[in-house]
């Protein structure tokens, strides 16, 4: 009787991608190949993160990136692994990475039809403490006749064809969504070396009394944000919200996706444009949340996926999470316009 409980019809990411491709008659297989390369980047980054303290990969690399962050050794290695995967799959024409000042143009692949943005290691300040970090990705399809420049990425997030992230936590969790599609979650089985579909069709709960924000910034917040967060902590009736803040967007967002609630990194007096970067943090995460039934807005209460970056490393304030929770933020801002 015990044998009946073992699932022998396992959906690996490889199988999932093959089945997705079969649903699209016009598909050439290029997108599938690109995803296979992504999957290898996640596996290899996961491997090095898990071995970091054993092979002298903790600590700083000694350089600063384009957005002013001190690079950790693993930021650099994660970036190199990601670039190499994207280059070798020969399906990517343009790549933007947090760790590269300029967009990388793969002139050796002039026929490649995709542009990718990535945050190779998100939450890298948490690395040496062994706290969960992640990799975020956004995929755009080049329009017919595109020249293959960074302009191919300076578009609203609504034009992405796919996005997602992998969280390197107690296990590696990959979350991926495609345009107008469902959100699917996979768990890396280290003995198979395969991502296995463990969370099909993820839907974020409509409401949940959890907020996630760096409250150390509260003295810099604008009035609507202060008033909104206060309303969660000192409700007119009922219990106050629980606070959860890891400090890795991927980990805070993954928990929010599963449990519901709200994650916020608002623009404030210290960071008037916000801290998180549009192309490889805000937009891909917003697509995941919208496709899971949630919402994502910027500090002007605009739909995050409508925001168009001017430069590849542009930042934005962001509020994302359960529909009912993000609606409360929007309502709290209405009084001030
Ligand atoms: P990264 O490690 O890719 O530079 O991103 C850091 C980001 C994000 O992961 C997190 O949500 C946020 O920075 C945390 O910022 P604070 O330390 O200011 O709270
Ligand atoms: Mn960084
Ligand atoms: Mn990040
Ligand atoms: Mn990063």
Automatic annotation (TrEMBL):
Catalyzed reactions: beta-D-fructose 1,6-bisphosphate + H2O = beta-D-fructose 6-phosphate + phosphate
Q: Which keywords are on file for this protein?
A: Carbohydrate metabolism, Hydrolase, Magnesium, Metal-binding
Pfam short name (any one): FBPase_C
Q: Where is the Fructose-1-6-bisphosphatase class I N-terminal domain?
A: 11-200
**Example of a GO cellular component annotation carried by this entry:** cytosol
What's an example GO BP annotation here?
fructose metabolic process
SUPFAM superfamilies for the chain: Carbohydrate phosphatase
GO MF annotation list? fructose 1,6-bisphosphate 1-phosphatase activity; metal ion binding
Gene3D superfamilies attached to this UniProt entry: 3.40.190.80, Fructose-1,6-Bisphosphatase, subunit A, domain 1
Q: Which residues form the Fructose-1-6-bisphosphatase class 1 C-terminal domain?
A: 204-333
Describe, as the record does, how this protein assembles with itself and its partners.
Homotetramer.
Q: Which NCBIfam families match?
A: PRK09293.1-1
The name of this protein is Fructose-1,6-bisphosphatase
Species this chain originates from: Melanomma pulvis-pyrius CBS 109.77
């Amino acid at each position: 009787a015990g044998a009946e409980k073992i699932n022998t019809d396992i959906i690996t990411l490889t199988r999932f991608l093959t089945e997705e491709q079969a649903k699209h008659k016009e598909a050439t297989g290029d997108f599938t190949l690109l995803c296979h390369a992504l999957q290898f980047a996640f596996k290899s980054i996961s491997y090095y993160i898990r071995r970091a303290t054993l092979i002298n990969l903790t600590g700083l690399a000694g350089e600063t990136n384009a957005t002013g962050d001190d690079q950790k050794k693993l930021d650099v290695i994660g970036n190199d692994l990601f670039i190499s995967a994207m280059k070798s799959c020969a399906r990517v024409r343009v790549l933007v990475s947090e760790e590269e000042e300029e967009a990388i143009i793969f002139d050796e692949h002039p026929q490649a039809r995709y542009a990718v943005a990535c945050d190779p290691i998100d939450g890298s300040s948490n690395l040496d403490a062994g706290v969960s970090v992640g990799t975020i990705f956004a995929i755009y399809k080049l329009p017919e006749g595109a020249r293959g420049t960074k302009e191919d990425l300076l578009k609203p997030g609504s034009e992405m064809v796919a996005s997602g992230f992998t969280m390197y936590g107690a296990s590696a969790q990959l979350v991926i969504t495609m345009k107008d599609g469902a959100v699917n979650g996979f768990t890396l089985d280290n003995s198979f070396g395969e991502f296995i579909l463990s969370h099909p069709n993820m839907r974020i709960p409509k409401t949940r009394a959890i907020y996630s924000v760096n409250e150390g910034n509260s003295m810099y917040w604008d009035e609507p944000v202060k008033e909104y967060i206060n309303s969660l902590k000192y409700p007119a009736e009922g219990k106050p919200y629980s606070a959860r803040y890891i400090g890795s967007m991927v980990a805070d967002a993954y928990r929010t996706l599963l449990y519901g609630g709200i994650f916020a990194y608002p623009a404030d007096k210290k960071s008037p444009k916000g801290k998180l970067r549009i192309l490889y943090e805000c937009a891909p995460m917003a697509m995941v949340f919208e496709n899971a039934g949630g919402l994502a807005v910027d500090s002007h209460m605009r739909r995050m996926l409508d925001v168009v970056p001017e430069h590849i490393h542009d930042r934005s304030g962001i509020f994302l999470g359960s529909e009912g929770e993000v609606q409360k933020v929007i309502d709290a801002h209405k009084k001030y316009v």
